[in-house]
Automatic annotation (TrEMBL), chain A:
The keyword Disulfide bond does not apply. One of its GO terms (cellular component) is cytoskeleton. GO terms for biological process: non-motile cilium assembly; vesicle-mediated transport. It is found in: Cytoplasm, Cytoskeleton. Belongs to the fuzzy family. Keywords: Cytoplasm, Cytoskeleton. Residues 10-139 form the FUZ/MON1/HPS1 first Longin domain. Residues 301-429 form the FUZ/MON1/HPS1 third Longin domain. Its main location: cytoplasm. The keyword Membrane does not apply. This is Protein fuzzy homolog. Residues 179-265 form the FUZ/MON1/HPS1 second Longin domain. The gene is fuz.
Automatic annotation (TrEMBL), chain B:
Gene3D superfamilies: 2.30.42.10. This is Protein inturned. SMART domains: PDZ. SUPFAM superfamilies: PDZ domain-like. Residues 717-728 have a biased composition (Low complexity). It comes from Gymnodraco acuticeps (Antarctic dragonfish).
């Protein structure tokens, strides 16, 4: 007898001061209002007594995480947990914390901070918030395979076979559009971006990518969308212009009042991008592997996630293996590989590798996150690498000053060889692409 | 009253008898007479010392330190011999009268009955630190004393010749009026609060008789005539006999108003006393007094022992008052008809400000517990809250209609192990009281629970403070959390012949075949059946005849009361614990076809020196049923004591095992950093055997080889694993036959000559001398083929060869790279780890850090194992999506460490990398391994290490 199904996640949003429910998303069956009221009530009660409730865990991996943003908006996420208590509780909490941050940023992105912090008309706010739903749902479901940015806060990138051509075209196009912020997105990942684009805060880059993905999923050839940058300009809106170059390849610029969508579409897109159609097709062919064919991965790498810690970019791929020797245990499916990769990333970063992105978030968030990462601080020596052998596959993670690499290998690879595989993979990719 | 008077009597007796002698001579006399006394002597005509400590419900917790402890305490207090002695002397007088009556009686036969009664009265009052005087030290102290006469007894005639100057001094003491109410001792008639609360004895009538200095003669001056043992006054160590109490917290006091002033102290607080003291005029005296103060401040017994003695815990409690922590037992069933304040709180501890804040939000805990079960379908386990800047994890345990809530600071207990900690507390409480309801819902349990949770929080929040005053190494919280959290007891493997003897002695005891206990002897049913017992030596389990679950129950109790470290660090004079317990396995099993006899169970723990035996007894069943709450039975206690005395013969053998070089061999992390090499080189040059050894290494070092990570490919065989290493080189020459000798692990004889410490150092020696240029370069050498033993035997004597094969080394390679390990065997509920002594032998600056880190990492590894446990047994296909990482079999982390305080700016600090790896095996028996070894080990040996550890466990 329970109100929330296993494995489902429900997001509740209320005003922090009065506790008026603004919206709930996720899960087929909405929680009863009494429960929503109690969940909000306990947090408010605690705050009144100088105690800030932050999370809660139940048997079977159920989780509740509370978070108040800007003293105005309360976000609560309730997750039903796995079937039989197999959930990795700590891991789940990090995922939910990250989800709340993303949902808040996404609300700011669409509506701007002013509207969210100075609520004058609750009914109107409720109506306005509907425009965020598609993006929020996308964050909640987290269905899109191969997109890890929501979790890592590193921009999912795709390494094109000939980056310089694309970069030049993009720079030219952005300049012509009277802007400094431009990016080319292929298969939902950033194939090229202007320097200024990379200077945006990593969560913003990730969020803009998510927005562009959801916009391009709508099927329109181009659009003009007002956005607030959660950290860069939370109160002043910019225009995000998006043009579809080929199915799966979009180019965007962030700009001021000019140029108009029409003039940009007619005047500039053709001029800059028509000569590059073949290059773009090559780029599309890279597909979900994110890595150009020039990079030869060892055959015993099932999946990998490589993060550049300085640029906050990541590449990731899962390989569908074809020639498996008979008698070997079955390899995990592609979807499962993505899931394990995510879980292993959270596992390693919560326990061993510190996430230095705390440098670029607000002090308020930093305080909150410092408290969740208490375990890492307990080590007297610096963890460099770690591995995990489970029933399905082997996972290996390593951290250098510049990179973090997480990879999955089949069980047939001997454990002692993992380290060599990992270090070689890292040097191969970095050597071939300069990532 | 009675106590104080009695004490006074003795004081006067002793003093009165020797008024002509000065204090010093009196001491000498006392020491001589006590020196023959032995704490473990147990004569029939004297009742057991613990008899009066038995509580109404039959429980007993009696702990007494041995002379060794007192000596150690004396040794710690470098200069304060005289002071301590003076303090002891007061006690000696008492103890002398109390226990060592034989000699006294020889001179005063008439006094015997009185003395016996007196002794009993005296015993009621606890005198912790001074139960046994430092008898053996008598002579030494005596000489020390005669050179520096005690200044504390200022009103002795001999002292007054010295020119004295009056001085005022301020002393802060901690007073707790609540303790008065709780303690059994009523207010002393004569002394009132001054005596009862502060511990200062003032007798108005004495003032004249003893003759204060003429210029200060006043009837109502509060001269300190004596100090009550164990009182705040004596504990602070700065109030001396002869001082005059002038003011309390700036209020002038005299004998007229002192009672009124003291009665105004509402609760536990610190008060400032202003005392007029007679400072000796000459410099040497002044110096002496200062040293007195200094040494007196350090407690002779550790806080832990004080806590166990049930002394005032408020001070310890106050020192962690700012750390938020709480335990509450809340009722979920609220009678809304009669809403009373805090009605739902059935129990709560402590009452500090930070915990008050947590208590204030108990509504959150109740609501969440109630609501979340319906929302997510599982009971609530934990929540995290921010209290100001501090993160607090709260663990829940719901039982019937009540909820146990434990809040702990996150910096002490990570969320990963919160559940284990809460689970262990709950189990301990259940073992002690049967159920949580029974533990918390009886009003008279409250003080005992306070004590229980005081220990619990102190151990978690300030373990170092508990242990200060003892010689124990600084404890690391992660280590405690990890090792105590394992469902296992630390085991010490013994040589088979000793093990057999120990087992035989235990079995003899357990058979209950001793005269008085046999049914035939009295024609009565026996009182208890001995279900089994287990034996600890210095915190290691050395024999166990209890089923696993019972063993864990017993061990949880011992862990909670810190009995194991106590027995290892301090010599326990005598420990007797008796209480009813509710073993969890016996309470819950309902196996079809067999039911446990419905009896009551009692736990008897007897400790003697380093041995401690825990016996589980059953009443009912085939023994006679227990009625009421029986106290410990002397016969059983004596039998256990006899067993322990019998076992003491084997102590030498066990000690030898503890002193033996570690098997498997261990290395110290510091040896792998170049900074340590210099030290080793100097060591090598200082020891002839060593330098020879090192020379041999240098001589044979042909080339060097960079040893990196997993990249090491060259296979080197060590004698131990050579059987499996069929591909080893077949060629041999003179150099190769020497080769195994280069590693001290293979040449135990050279190591043994140097003693255990050198033996283990040896590996570093060879390692260090081998490394010439690069970080880790070792001589490349060929190794003997195990199948050509013939040549080996030519060069090595037979004994050496044999020993070479007996030494266990888990890692391969010429040098040992194993730093630390923990092997847990969950079927028997034991784990094996290097002994404390082995750890201590590998002293170094980095190694302790490494072990701390190892334990911290193990917490994480074990948490990963635990999380995946419930999922096991399901097939992968059945698993729903989003089910986590899945069952974890093995998990390893590579760490890098740098020496601290690296000052050399030009060169980067050298680094050393090492692995911490944990593996869980389910077949053939469930086991968990945690090992920590240097990165240089080749890959296959990692597997070897795991496989070889099968040979480790029993």
């Amino acid at each position: 007898m329970m109100m929330l199904q296993h494995g489902s996640t429900q997001l509740l949003c209320l005003t922090a001061s009065s506790g008026v429910p603004l919206f709930t998303r996720g899960a087929s069956k909405q929680l009863p209002f009494s429960v929503i009221g109690s969940l909000n009530g306990v947090h408010m009660f605690g705050a009144g007594h100088g105690v800030v409730l932050s999370s809660c865990e139940t048997e079977g991996g159920g989780k509740v995480v509370w978070r108040v943003f800007q003293d105005s908006m309360m976000l609560i996420v309730v997750s039903g947990g796995g079937q039989d208590g197999a959930g990795d509780s700590k891991e789940d909490e990090v995922r939910l914390q990250r989800l709340l941050e993303n949902v808040w940023s996404c609300m700011v992105l669409v509506l701007g901070q002013d509207e969210l912090t100075n609520v004058r008309n609750v009914e109107r706010l409720k109506r306005d918030l509907r425009s965020c739903f598609s993006l929020i749902d996308q964050l909640l479901e987290d269905r899109q395979e191969g997109i890890l940015g929501n979790l890592t806060h590193c921009a999912d990138s795709l390494l094109p076979p000939n980056p310089t051509l694309l970069q030049e075209a993009l720079d030219g196009f952005t300049q012509a559009a009277d802007s400094e912020f431009g990016c080319l997105i292929v298969h939902g990942r950033i194939a090229a971006a202007t320097e200024k684009w990379w200077r945006l805060a990593p969560p913003e880059v990730v969020l803009l990518s998510a927005l562009i993905r959801s916009l391009s999923a709508s099927g329109s050839a181009s659009c003009d969308y007002p956005v607030f940058l959660p950290q860069g300009s939370p109160t002043v809106a910019h225009r995000l212009l998006r043009f579809q170059l080929l199915p799966g390849a979009d180019v965007c610029v962030l700009c001021g009042p000019t140029p108009s969508l029409h003039s940009a579409e007619s005047g500039m897109v053709g001029r800059f991008w028509t000569p590059l159609v073949e290059t773009l097709r090559d780029c599309l062919a890279v597909g979900e592997h994110s890595l150009p064919r020039s990079v030869s991965l060892r055959p015993d790498v099932l999946a990998l996630l490589l993060i550049n810690r300085e640029t906050r970019r990541s590449v990731s791929c899962v390989r569908t293996s074809t020639n498996r020797p008979l008698g070997d245990p079955p390899l995990p499916s592609k979807a499962r590989c993505w899931e394990i990769l995510k879980l292993f990333y959270i596992f390693s970063t919560t326990r061993y590798f510190n996430q230095e992105e705390t440098l670029c978030v607000s002090p308020e968030e930093r305080a909150q996150r410092a408290n969740t990462d208490d375990f890492v601080l307990g080590f007297s020596h610096q963890p460099l690498q770690c591995y995990l052998v489970t029933e399905e596959c082997k996972s290996y993670g390593l951290q250098t000053p510049q990179h973090q690499l997480f990879l999955l290998a089949p069980l047939s690879v001997p454990t002692f060889a993992l380290r060599t595989v990992a270090t070689q993979t890292l040097s191969d990719i970095v050597g071939a692409t300069g990532f | 009253m009675a106590t104080a008077n009695a004490r006074k009597c003795i004081d006067t007796n002793v003093c009165g008898g020797k008024t002509e002698e000065d204090g010093v001579e009196m001491h000498g006399c006392d020491c001589e007479s006590t020196s023959s006394f032995n704490s473990s002597d147990y004569s029939d005509d004297l009742e057991p010392e613990w008899l009066d400590d038995i509580q109404k419900n039959g429980e007993l917790f009696y702990l007494e330190l041995s002379e060794g402890e007192e000596e150690a305490a004396l040794a710690n207090a470098n200069q304060g011999v005289a002071t301590n002695h003076v303090r002891f002397s007061e006690k000696e007088a008492e103890i002398l009268t109390e226990q060592n009556k034989n000699q006294r009686c020889a001179s005063r036969t008439k006094g015997e009955p009185t003395l016996k009664r007196l002794a009993r009265i005296l015993r009621r009052k606890r005198r912790p630190s001074q139960r046994k005087p430092g008898a053996k030290d008598g002579g030494k102290e005596n000489s020390a004393l005669s050179s520096a006469p005690a200044s504390i007894l200022k009103n002795q005639p001999g002292q007054r010749q010295a020119v004295t100057v009056q001085q005022l001094k301020e002393v802060c003491v901690y007073l707790n009026p609540k303790r008065l109410a709780g303690s059994s001792a009523p207010l002393c008639e004569g002394g009132g609060l001054l005596e009862a609360l502060l511990g200062v004895v003032h007798r108005a009538s004495w003032s004249r008789g003893l003759g204060d200095p003429p210029e200060v003669r006043q009837e109502d001056r509060l001269t300190v005539h004596g100090l009550i043992p164990n009182s705040p006054a004596i504990k602070c160590g700065q109030i001396l006999i002869g001082d005059v109490l002038v003011a309390v917290d700036d209020v002038d006091v005299s004998s007229e108003n002192i009672e009124r002033v003291l009665s105004c102290i509402p609760g536990p607080t610190q008060v400032r006393l202003l005392l007029e003291t007679l400072a000796p005029a000459d410099d040497s005296r002044a110096e002496h007094t200062s040293s007195v103060r200094k040494t007196k401040a350090s407690p002779p017994v550790s806080q832990l022992v004080r806590l166990l003695w049930g002394e005032d815990t408020a001070e310890l409690q106050m020192s962690i008052a700012h750390v938020p922590h709480i335990v509450m037992f809340l009722s979920l069933k609220l009678d809304s008809a009669s809403p009373q304040e805090e009605e739902e709180i059935l129990y709560q501890y402590p009452a500090s400000e930070a915990s008050g804040q947590l208590k204030g939000v108990r509504g959150i805990f109740l609501t969440l517990c109630d609501m979340l079960e319906n929302v997510t379908g599982g009971r609530i386990l934990s929540s995290s809250l921010l209290l100001g800047k501090q993160l607090v994890h709260v663990g829940y345990w719901k039982e019937s209609n009540n909820l146990l809530v434990i809040g702990l600071p996150a910096e002490r207990v990570p969320l990963l192990c919160l559940q284990t900690v809460v689970g262990d507390v709950v189990r301990t409480l259940k073992v002690m009281y049967g159920s949580l309801d029974r533990a918390f819902c009886q009003a008279d349990h409250a003080p005992r629970l306070d004590h229980f949770f005081c220990l619990f929080f102190q151990q978690l929040i300030q373990p170092s403070r508990l242990r200060d005053g003892s010689s124990a190494p600084p404890t690391d919280v992660s280590g405690t959390l990890f090792l105590d959290g394992l469902p296992a007891v630390r085991w010490l493997t013994l040589p088979p012949e000793i093990k057999m003897e120990v087992d035989t002695v235990l079995s003899d005891f357990e058979s209950s075949d001793f005269g008085e206990m046999s049914e035939d002897f009295f024609g009565l049913r026996r009182l208890y059946v001995i279900l089994g017992s287990c034996l600890f030596y210095k915190s290691y389990l050395i024999a166990n005849h209890l089923p696993k679950e019972d063993l864990l129950d017993v061990c949880l109790y011992c862990q909670h009361y810190c009995l194991l470290p106590l027995a290892s660090e301090q010599r326990v004079g005598q420990l007797v614990i008796w209480r009813e317990v509710f073993p969890q396995q016996r309470a819950s099993t309902n196996n079809p076809g067999y039911s446990q006899p419905q009896g009551r169970h009692f736990l008897l723990i007897v400790g003697l020196r380093h041995f401690m035996q825990c016996v589980l007894l059953e009443a009912g069943g085939c023994a006679s049923a227990a009625l009421g709450s029986p106290g410990p039975d002397c016969v059983y206690v004596d039998q256990v004591k006899a067993t322990l005395l019998q076992l003491e013969v084997l102590q030498a053998g066990v000690e030898e095992r503890l002193n033996a070089p570690p098997a498997p061999c261990l290395s110290c992390a510091d040896w792998f950093l170049p900074a340590a090499r210099d030290r080793l080189d100097s060591l090598a040059s200082s020891s002839p055997v060593f330098s020879k050894l090192a020379g041999a290494v240098r001589g044979s070092s042909g080339g060097s080889r960079g040893r990196s990570l997993f990249g090491e490919r060259a296979r080197r065989s060590s004698p131990q694993r050579s059987q499996s290493d069929s591909g080893s080189e077949g060629q041999m020459d003179a150099g190769t036959s020497l080769a195994p000798g280069l590693s001290p692990h293979s040449t135990p004889d050279s190591g043994r000559k140097l003693g255990g410490r050198r033996d283990s150092l040896g590996s570093g020696g060879s390692e260090g001398s081998g490394g010439s240029g690069g970080l880790f370069k070792i001589p490349r050498m060929k190794h003997p083929n195990p199948f050509f033993l013939g040549t080996l035997k030519k060069t090595l004597t037979e004994r050496e060869t044999e020993e070479m094969y007996n030494t266990m080394k888990l890692t391969s390679g010429a040098e040992n790279t194993l730093f630390h390990y923990v092997v847990m065997e969950s079927v028997q509920g034991i784990f094996i780890a290097p002994t404390h002594r082995e750890e201590a032998q590998l002293s170094g600056s980095i190694h302790p850090q490494l072990i701390r880190n190892f334990h911290h990492c193990c917490l994480s590894i074990r948490a990963a194992f635990q999380q995946s446990l419930p999922a096991r047994g399901r097939r992968a296909a059945d698993r729903p999506q989003g089910w986590g990482l899945g069952p974890v079999k093995e998990h390893g982390v590579l760490f890098q460490c740098k020496p601290e305080n690296w000052t050399d700016q030009r060169k980067p600090a050298p680094t050393m990398t090492y692995w911490v790896i944990g593996r869980m095996l389910l077949e053939p028996v469930p086991q968990e391994f945690y090992v920590c070894f240097h990165d240089s080990v080749a890959e296959v040996p990692v597997e070897m290490a795991f496989r070889l550890s099968f040979g480790l466990a029993l």
